[in-house]
Amino acid sequence: MAAEKKAFVLRIQAETLKELERWAQEEFRSVNGQIEFLLNDALRKHRKRTRNPADNDPPADAQA
Asked: How far apart are CA 57 and CA 2, in angstroms?
């Protein structure tokens, strides 16, 4: 079963949109597909970082 997709309005700077359009074209994606790809990649990296937050903390005996 396919995941349900939700539509929403995105306000974005014109120059940022132009860059996204160029990048999406280079990777044979639509702008929407490129934005979705980038968001999913960022979320995946965020989940990986926050899965074990203690692993990212300096040791308790480390001095600043």
From this structure: 38
Check: pTM over 0.85? Answer yes or no: no
Angle (nearest 5°) at CA 45 between 14 and 21: 20
At 31-56, the pLDDT tens digits run 999 999 999 999 999 999 998 766 65
Determine, yes or no, domain membership for 62: no
Cα–Cα distance, 61 to 25 (Å, whole number): 50
Q: Tell the burial category of 37 from Cβ atoms under 10 Å away from its Cβ (0-12, 13-18, 19+).
A: middle
Angle at CA of residue 14, ends 10 and 16, nearest 5°: 80
In a domain, 20, yes or no: yes
